[in-house]
Amino acid sequence: MASSKEEVEISRLMSFLQEWDNGTKAVRHRMLNDFINTNKGKTGPELELQFAQGASLFLTRLTAWLRLTYMVGTCLTEQLQAIGVFLSATSGHRYLIEVLEVGGLLTFLEILKLKQLREDNKQESLKLLQIIANAGRKYKELICESYGVRNVAECLANAKLEKTQEQAQILLELLAQGNPKYQLQVYKGLIALLPCTSPKVQKLALQTLMTLQPVVKIVHPCIVEPLLNILKTVHYEVQYEGIEFIKMLLNYNVRKALLEGLVACLNPSTDDIKDRPKILDDQWRLEQTKAQEISQLMSQINEPTTTLTESLPLFVQQTAAAKVIGLLIQESAEIAEELLQLRVVHHLMIAMGNLNHADSQRQASLTLEHLVRTFPVVEENVRKAIGETLFELYMTDPERFYLKIDFVQAAVLVGNKVNITGSKAELTFFNKQ
Fold first, then answer.
1. Contact yes or no for 137/127 (Cβ under 8 A)
2. pLDDT in tens, 279-303
3. pLDDT above 70 coverage of the chain, percent
């Protein structure tokens, strides 16, 4: 027979459950808050003691009400927090199984997709999914099998609040670690976030990719284009993360593609820049000695361009590419030699002649200076391409060189034909000389 104490506890439990079953929305809201405040941080055995070994009876009611009301958001934050008390309880693994058995996982993932729900609801859902993911590899796989990666990535992309974004990022990182079956799926999901318009999302995606790269080990070639496009951002904290990731990936199989892409960014194509000055036209460069055409060129450059704003991201990318190349050649002579094979000198000089963007000119000048001082063959070719007078003007003050050149000198830079050839061994030999 049950003792009198046990009978009292059972009676109290039955009264609690009856109040819940008969309660209005306001009553249940109060009961949820009381439960959360009273039981947060308790272990599984402590919860069972609190509910006379019948805690699962209340958990069942919570999950049932959640499935009925989550689409309209009735007390949703409180419901999720109350379920979180059970799921986070030490020695309370049985509660996790009970929630999963009634479809709790799919409900949590569905909450992330509903546009009508507040972001604090989604934050709580993300926390519950984190608890499930932390329970072990098979639970991470279960989340991924339920299209969890896509749902969480979309939630991250669409979130407006930083707290929501950070919770989604934590979950994605959890799903990739210790989950070899689906880590590549998470990796690709993060790559898909790079074109996102939110700087915070881009930053979080890049940080997570850098964390996961040593785990994933391989690099999918599809990462090159979106990563180079990150350099178009005017948000320097995002650009910094992108540059750091590029430096990391140079140790992987996409090294050549990244270096080629960086060099190409120094000279945006005419298809990308509608207001590209005629200073870049090949036919004009062949006839640039004619005074009349030089005069026409200067008047065209002086005219305001209507689409310069549209080209700004490409010029920002050009500046960033020159900056990255400068960092790389200072850190590695081997990379510097590889870039020389890709005609980086030719493209840097084109960027130096970009009168539409002073930052591009400055960064390209500083990067080229390092190459000129490091490789005699570069110095020789640059000197021949622009003439002794312009070369001396450049080497006197490379950082402020862009302030001293006129339109005709810019034309000389853009029209350069520098093409340094030779094997890496030959370039190294020139360097040692």
1. no
2. 334 433 443 343 344 444 444 444 4
3. 87
Number of residues written out for the chain: 433
| Amino acid letter for position 319 | T
Q: Look up the pTM and report it.
A: 0.84
What distance separates the 2 farthest-apart alpha carbons in the chain? 112
Q: Are 207 and 172 in contact (CB under 8 A)?
A: no
User: What totals of helices (H) and strands (E) does the chain contain, helices first?
Assistant: 26, 0
pLDDT at site 396: 95
Helices (H), 23-161: 25-39, 44-50, 55-69, 76-87, 93-101, 104-113, 119-134, 137-145, 148-158
For residue 99, what are its two tokens?
A: 């929630």
Cβ-proximal residues to 347 (8 Å cutoff; 6+ apart), any chain: 263, 264, 266, 267
Q: CA separation (Å) from 112 to 17, 124, 190?
A: 30, 10, 17
The pair phi, psi for residue 267, each rounded to 5°, is: -135, 75
Find out whether 284 and 202 touch, Cβ atoms under 8 Å.
Answer: no
Residue 308: predicted pLDDT? 54
- Give mean pLDDT, residues 89-97: 95
N- to C-terminal Cα distance for the chain? 99
pLDDT one-digit tens code per residue, 20-56 = 999 999 999 999 999 999 999 999 999 999 999 999 9
Contact of 149 with 175, CB cutoff 8 Å? yes
Q: How many CA atoms lie within 13 A of 391 on its CB side?
A: 14
**Residue position matching structure tokens 């439960």:** 35
Q: 155, 112 in Cβ contact below 8 A?
A: yes
* pLDDT tens digit sequence for 343-393: 999 999 999 999 999 999 999 999 999 999 999 999 999 999 999 999 999
- 210 with 290: CB under 8 angstroms? no
CA distance 147 to 419: 51
The C-alpha torsion from 247 through 248 and 254 to 257, rounded to 10°, is -10
Question: Whole-angstrom Cα distance, residue 241 to residue 140?
Answer: 27
CA angle 400, 405, 409 (to 5 degrees): 140
